[in-house]
Amino acid sequence: MSKSMKATLTDLCQKEISTATDAELYTALLKLVHEKSQQHVKPVTGRKLYYISAEFLIGKLLSNNLINLGLYDDVRDTLAEAGKALADIEEQEPEPSLGNGGLGRLAACFLDSLATLSLPGDGVGLRYHCGLFHQNFKNNVQNETPDFWLTDQCAAKATDTVFPVSLAGKTYSARLYKLPVTGYEGRTNTLNLFDLDTVDESVIGDGISFDKKDIAKNLTLFLYPDDSDEDGRLLRIYQQYFMVSAGAQLILDECMARGCNLHDLADYAAIQINDTHPSMVIPELIRLLGLHGIEFEEAVQIVTDTCAYTNHTILAEALEKWPRHYLDTVVPQLMPIIEKLDAIAKTRTDNAALAIIDQNQVVHMAHMDIHFSHSTNGVATLHTQILKESELAGFYQMYPDKFNNKTNGITFRRWLLKCNPALTSEIENLIGDGFKKDASELKKLLAYTDDTEVLSKIRTIKKDNKKQLATWLADKQGIRLNTDALFSIQSKRLHEYKRQQLNLLFLIHEYLEIKAGHVPATPLVSIFGAKAAPAYIIAKDIIHGLLTLSQVISEDPQVSRWLQLAFVENYNVSAAEKMIPACDLSEQISLASKEASGTGNMKFMLNGALTLGTMDGANVEIAEAVGNDNIYIFGQSSKQVIHHYAAADYCARDWYEADPNLRRAIDFLTSEEMLKYGDEEHLKRLQHELINKDWFQTLPDFNAYVVRKEQAMKDYAVNPEDWSRRTLINIAEAGFFSSDRTIAEYDQDIWHLGK
Ligand code: 475
């Protein structure tokens, strides 16, 4: 036990630890972390990365920072000696609300890995006051309320730096806030977040509604404000330009302070554009370089050499394109530049499909990124291949050297060390702690796949994690889970392509089977975590279907002995940290070709879950790593799916009519049982959608899904030891999916930082 930690904390609290409140201890620990992390701030030489992103889904920071600074054990033990629990103190920290899904969490993992690898790389984003909405359930329906997460103690501190940003001809001041990002035994970088002093949380009315026109008061209130109307879409452009203009000014200032003459900007800065939300940074930098006296053509070259673009999706609706008149309104200063870029692009190709401004006067942000940055990357091997062969084939033919793959990764500090201490220490006992910095060392675990003692330990750890999750859910939502059951978890944004509705149909099927006297091989607990975008009607209907079914099951003792459906309210990073270590079966069931990568799939694997998935995104690479015996793959291939889309020959109703089990499950959506607790309008709409449209081809995969999942349930029940052996293989093979590996690849191929 370190005496000095006791003395340090006592000093910081100005009282005995045992008499300090959790709030006082939290404040003391924040100071401790801040002081220590400042010791790892190092000067920047050579090229520095700026990762610009609308989202940074960072999660709570205290424990992670303590781990990265090597203080965690000492602090935990010192507190315990004084009768205090670090877990209680963690509860003092509000959950940062700066992101939505995989794209934002990836940005957070990348910041951790950059700092861990001692690479100079900062984030640039927005300081949302309420970020993504808080989700709660009432009458089996999702409701949204604002998530006021900012407190005086927020680690993002205001600076005196402000940049002028012109929006619709009016000048606003973007204030810079800085949040230190400390790596594991690495350096401390910064997450730069911009905000407007005049933003006013009191303008929020019912739920999360507000006057979308009052930019001075609403600009940074919410992440992804409802864009189902024109004012909402304009607001997104206001936000995006505010972020990139302030960011670009920061980048130029920092580089000039380090001696850059702007002609050599690409030697000082690498800018990674995280999906299309920050794409306007390209014309904005060209504009700013022009103000510094650099000719247009040279500016275009400088910006191309500096910027790189990551694509995270092939879904057409997520590839941003804006009617030109939106940009004319919000950023008239950029339009002449975008027009010139479009003209250059048109000199390079006759293919109208590759234009920045199309014949309908719509501006394609991704097209601007690809023409005027030096790198375009996908986020998993399959995804990059689809970009090259289908979605962006025309661009790939034009710029084959720009295209590259960077398979996503996750930071093991948060997704193993922090969230699963029991598994971490067992791994450490077996193979030492080298895996914390070199994840490929996890392969050493393969030596233990026949060691029954180790396998039994792995099983005990999983069981304990399930009990902890059950306790947490009982406290939070009053749900009692059967911890002897197989835990299957699907947690991710709610989207039709991710196919939570397929899981819903399976659960209805199981329910009906049990009612008919066919009990499953093992009791099953099916857990969901997901938020639906507030204006995404069908997504909300799917949530309603799941919540309603959950009630039908829980009110039926005959079924609930065998089957439970738990929906975790307000799924976020902290919830994920509790759910993932408790999972047996990881549900990665997107329609093949649609999930660019997935990163939850990696987190579950690392924590010893087996994957039930389609050959989509990084599932393909997980399957390659663990081998077919250690994963449950089902469903159409991406080739088949792409073919059906091209031929437009998919007819959901044919499948509905041909398969009695499927028909029975879909019909049940509007059954008496469901209508007892559910709303007819929601359930009918969902049913109608499935039978008449089913854009993401749920029905053709239903049968294969049922068969594979029932097989998994049987394997789990019949041979627990073999199941543990297979989970150990998954853990051992997870090393490739460390974001340290991903970041090392970005650095080697695209950024060349510090050089
Ligand atoms: C992919 N979010 C995952 C992950 O690469 C992938 C976009 C627009 C508006 C609101 N949210 C978004 C995303 O597109 C997103 O999260 N994409 C995800 O990026 C990281 O692993 O497959 O869906």
UniProtKB/TrEMBL annotation:
**Which InterPro entries does this chain map to?**
Glycg_phsphrylas, Glyco_trans_35, Pyridoxal_P_attach_site
What's one GO-annotated cellular component?
cytoplasm
Q: Point out the coiled-coil segments of this chain.
A: none
Which residues are recorded as modified (N6-(pyridoxal phosphate)lysine)?
603
Note the Pfam families from the entry: Phosphorylase
Catalyzed reaction equations: [(1->4)-alpha-D-glucosyl](n) + phosphate = [(1->4)-alpha-D-glucosyl](n-1) + alpha-D-glucose 1-phosphate
Q: Which UniProt keywords apply?
A: Allosteric enzyme, Carbohydrate metabolism, Cytoplasm, Glycosyltransferase, Pyridoxal phosphate, Transferase
What's its top-level EC category?
transferase
Compartmental location? Cytoplasm
A GO molecular function term, named singly, is: pyridoxal phosphate binding
Functionally, this protein is described as follows: Allosteric enzyme that catalyzes the rate-limiting step in glycogen catabolism, the phosphorolytic cleavage of glycogen to produce glucose-1-phosphate, and plays a central role in maintaining cellular and organismal glucose homeostasis.
* Similarity remark: Belongs to the glycogen phosphorylase family.
What is the official name of this protein in its record?
Alpha-1,4 glucan phosphorylase
Q: What is the lineage of its organism?
A: Bacteria, Bacillati, Bacillota, Clostridia, Lachnospirales
